[in-house]
Write a structure and sequence with these properties.
This protein has one helix and eight strands. It has a four-stranded antiparallel β-sheet with strand order 2-3-1-8, with no helix packed on it.
Length: 233
């Protein structure tokens, strides 16, 4: 039954006849594996108001261990501002490594409606909905461990058609993974994933043109087999 037949199955269907359009995006993925350890640190601190106006020391807070209200002098007679010694929470990096990879995303463009134009130019490309996860698996025996990063993201491509109207399509990365060997010690794993667009383009697969017909006509023939008879010596 032709698709133009007035049937219930074809009622309301839209058929598009034309060349296929593909949108291609090349992205770079950079995954950093950090082994961190929580620690405490003592630092000298000067209030912003005190540093700008040169006023006296600010009132001590509970996290401040000691205070010096007398300006100190460095070599050469230069006077420094009084400071407070504060206790802060910090993270110590025990080990760090990284992995980089490129990913090619391809999506056939399907117009959302009969009035939509065909993309002819890419205007912008951005990464969104990046979701990273990390897992640390010990390697026995020894102090090494296998760090695995799992992540997914989406790439939004803004394009323009022949009339100047803009549109957008979203390409999904699918499940992505990177691995690295680290030395965790007593630390924990933190995964940092950075993804950026390297380039985007529009392509249309080339349909081969019919070549010159062959001058030779095809020949059909059959092969037959005769029964094999074994002769006695």
């Amino acid at each position: 039954m032709p698709f133009t037949a007035p049937s219930v199955a074809n009622k309301g269907n839209l058929f598009r006849i034309g060349p296929r359009i593909d949108i291609l995006v090349v992205v770079q993925e950079l995954v950093t594996f950090n082994i961190l350890q929580d620690t405490l640190m003592l630092i000298p601190a000067v209030g912003l108001q005190q540093a700008s106006s040169g006023a006296g020391p600010l009132p001590a807070r509970p996290a401040q261990l000691s205070a010096s209200s007398i300006p100190e002098r460095q070599e050469g007679g230069q006077e420094t501002l009084p400071y407070q010694v504060e206790l802060i929470a910090a993270k110590r990096v025990l080990d760090s490594t990284w992995r980089a990879d490129d990913n090619l995303l391809v999506r056939p463009y399907i117009p959302p409606g009969p009035a939509a134009g065909v993309p002819v130019k890419i205007l912008a490309c951005r990464i969104k909905n990046l979701v990273p996860q990390g897992r640390l698996s010990p390697i026995s025996p020894g102090s090494q461990a296998l760090a695995v990063a799992y992540y997914t993201y989406e790439v939004e491509v803004i394009f323009a058609d022949g009339t100047g109207r803009t549109g957008a399509v979203t390409l999904e990365s699918g499940p992505r993974r990177q691995r690295a060997v680290v030395y965790p010690g007593s630390g924990y794993l933190e995964v940092d994933v950075t993804v950026k667009c390297l380039g985007a383009g529009i392509t249309s697969p080339v349909i081969p043109t019919p070549g010159t017909p062959l001058r030779h006509k095809p020949v059909r023939f059959w092969l037959g087999a005769r029964p094999f008879s074994r002769q006695r010596a």
